[in-house]
Design a protein that fits this description.
The complex is a heterodimer of chains A (about 350) and B (about 270).
Chain A lengths: L15 E5 L2 E5 L1 H23 L7 H8 L5 H35 L7 H4 L1 H15 L3 H23 L6 H25 L2 H12 L7 H20 L1 H7 L3 H6 L4 H23 L5 H13 L6 H21 L8 H22 L4
Antiparallel strand pairs in A: 1-2
Helix pairs in contact in A: 1-2, 1-3, 1-14, 3-9, 3-12, 3-13, 3-14, 5-6, 5-7, 5-8, 5-12, 6-7, 6-12, 9-12, 13-14, 14-15
Chain B lengths: L4 E12 L2 E12 L3 E5 L6 H8 L7 E6 L2 E2 L5 H5 L2 E4 L11 H6 L14 H13 L15 H14 L4 E5 L7 H18 L2 E5 L3 H7 L2 E6 L2 E6 L1 H4 L2 H8 L3 E5 L6 E5 L14
Helix pairs in contact in B: 4-5, 5-6
């Protein structure tokens, strides 16, 4: 138990309720502010991202082109090159954050994220097999998706028989990650040198050259799974209280857990298929959202918005940080996300929480 | 099962994986009783409670709620009739008392009925009934063990069930907080007319608070009934293997179990030397 604090406990802002007849919807002012703030930030960063590059455009030019008033060259640059990359960044960030938020609640552990559970590594294994076999980009994305899904199924088969308990899932995930990292290393040594270089770039997570072919399938996946995840969010916030309590409150725990695990794995695998295994976003975005909104629980919408902005900002930094030299976005998320995690652990350690 | 019982089990075989805890166990919880289940460690009392709360599915036999198989009923429907305070629950980091208690309203809510005025009233009333109203906006992590247990009871009350099961609600609490929690249970039973079933370790507490006592050993019900009739020296010896004397509790007149002294400690106070 933590020591009693000298200062008065901060009181949480009460939730607001809108009632129409017997219908009622509940939200918190802070969550709304965070959501709107993230959206506004995404728009600003998006305009900056589209405006930058070898062919610079002013924000007014960008907005003019987006609303259909651009020249043929501008239309091509924005519509075919920069906008799809931007959309991919937003979708990958949102998908990863949503996946992480669901998994963290599900396993009741802040380390529950697709990176830690091995789903991302599984996607990498799928992609590397295609690289070694000499397949194309589309095949690579498909194989990444399948690899992530196969790892999810493996986790479920090994850890799920006894009810998918939090710690068990994390430990099985860590083991799976270790095995898959070994397999991935072996596959890399088998690949021809040129392909190995391409594979390493993919393994870092990169948005370079991503187009509508990557963005559209991921958007479809998000459109399909967001209703599932949002629809079970209330049940998820009850599962956080423990399996017995959730059962007593009328949640069909194992059904909801399987459904959400499936959705989280699909989202993470889909994100990896589009951009490679971008590290730390799934782990950090839900944390950040929770700190910003100060609301306990899954916080799905805020997490997704935070993740989308986070990845967009990281991609922008990756393109602009070093003049004339682009970094893969995974380098930036790894550096920043890793530093955030270390800081978080240190801060939480002082508060005697971990 | 008797007519005046809403909850019970018939011919239950209870097991974890392959380890059978109880075989052909039948119990009935008298309606509007404060039933307490006692017995030595590993006698199956918590397992029985879990089966009654449908967090454990019996390998054979049926748990009946209002005459119907509990596993044939809709989860949410059961949750509006039967509440459970499990042995261990997890309070999400940073959650406030009011938010936690509000989650007890889950079976009464829906995607488009997230927070009715009734939800609001019931949560406020539940916090008042357990004396945690003043703590409403405090984070649960910062409360004492006794306060925290009252918060969890408030959450179970917010569920508004006529039947409430409590699995060792006094474990990890000091003696004053144990009495506080049991007094609260007794009040809920008497004033609100709820049927309570609690698993307790302390025989003295069980005899004092229960209106119906179930004594278990090795997965069997050894005796049940009014604690004044059930708690005898012979029964305590049979169930717990503890030689004892039974005296009258000077406060309540209920049976008080006094374990026999070890040999050599029977004489008066030892002179300080």
């Amino acid at each position: 138990m933590s020591r009693a604090r000298a200062t008065a406990a901060p009181t949480r802002p009460p939730a607001r309720v809108v009632r129409i007849g017997t219908r009622s919807v509940r939200w918190r002012g802070r969550s709304l502010v965070v959501g709107l703030g993230a959206t506004a930030l995404a728009v600003v960063l998006g305009v900056l991202a589209i405006g930058g590059g070898d062919y610079p455009m002013s924000p007014t030019d960008v907005l003019r082109t987006l609303t259909g008033g651009g020249s043929a060259a501008e239309d091509f640059i924005v519509g075919e090159l920069r906008l799809p990359r931007l959309v991919t960044a937003l979708a990958v960030g949102a998908a990863l954050a949503l996946s992480g938020a669901v998994l963290q609640s599900l396993v009741r552990n802040p380390l529950g994220s697709p990176d830690v559970l091995g789903v991302t590594q599984g996607a990498a294994t799928g992609a590397l097999i295609v690289v070694v076999a000499g397949g194309g980009t589309l095949l690579l994305s498909g194989a990444a998706l399948l690899g992530g899904l196969a790892t999810g199924l493996l986790l479920w088969a090994v850890a799920g028989r006894h009810g998918l308990h939090g710690y068990r899932l994390v430990l099985v995930g860590i083991g799976t990650t270790a095995i898959l990292t070994g397999v991935n290393g072996w596959l890399l040594t088998r690949a021809p040198l040129m392909d190995a270089a391409r594979a390493v770039l993919w393994l870092t997570g990169s948005l370079d050259g991503r187009g509508w072919a990557q963005a559209v399938p991921l958007l479809g996946l998000l459109a399909l799974l967001t209703p599932v995840v949002v629809g079970t969010a209330r049940a998820l916030s009850v599962i956080e209280l423990g399996d017995d309590t959730a059962t007593a409150l009328g949640v069909p725990v194992s059904l909801v857990r399987q459904l959400l695990l499936g959705a989280a794995v699909l989202l993470a695998a889909g994100a990896a298929a589009a951009a490679g295994p971008v590290s730390f976003v799934a782990l950090v975005a839900p944390h950040l959202a929770r700190r910003l909104t100060r609301v306990p629980g899954p916080n799905l919408a805020a997490a997704a918005a935070t993740g989308a902005v986070l990845l967009l900002a990281a991609d922008l930094a990756a393109q602009r940080a070093i003049d004339g030299h682009q970094l893969p976005v995974g380098v930036v998320t790894g550096l920043v996300g890793g530093a955030y995690l270390v800081w978080l652990l240190a801060a939480q350690g002082r508060a005697a929480r971990i | 099962m008797t007519e005046d019982s809403r909850l019970g089990g018939v011919g239950l075989t209870l097991a974890y994986e392959r380890r059978v805890v109880a075989r052909d166990l039948s119990v009935a919880v008298p309606d509007r009783s404060f039933t307490v289940v006692i017995g030595p460690n590993a006698c199956g009392k918590s397992t029985l409670l879990r089966a009654l709360a449908r967090t454990l599915r019996p390998t054979a036999g049926t748990v009946l709620l209002d005459g119907r198989d509990i596993h044939s009923l809709r989860s949410r429907e059961v949750a509006r009739t039967l509440g459970l305070l499990p042995q261990s629950s997890v309070a999400p980091e940073g959650i406030t008392v009011a938010d936690l208690v509000a989650r007890g309203r889950y079976p009464h809510q829906g995607l488009l009925r997230q927070w009715s005025t009734q939800d609001e009233q019931v949560v406020t009333a539940s916090m008042a009934a357990t004396g945690v109203g003043e703590l409403a906006h405090r984070p649960v992590d910062e409360l004492s063990g006794g306060q925290r247990q009252r918060v969890w009871i408030a959450m179970a009350l917010a569920q508004q069930t006529s039947l409430l099961l409590l699995d060792e609600p006094t474990t990890y609490l000091d003696v004053a907080h144990q009495i506080e929690v049991l007094d609260l249970c007794a009040r809920l039973h008497e004033e609100q007319g709820r049927t309570l079933v609690a698993v307790l370790h302390d025989l003295h507490h069980a005899a004092r608070y229960a209106t119906h006592l179930i004594a278990m050993r090795d997965g069997r019900v050894v005796a049940q009934g009014d604690p004044r009739e059930v708690v005898t020296a012979a029964l305590v010896e049979e169930v717990f293997g503890l030689p004892c004397r039974i005296v009258e509790d000077p406060e309540t007149g209920t049976p008080l179990v006094v374990p026999r002294a070890r040999r050599g400690r029977q004489s008066g106070p030892v002179a300080a030397g």
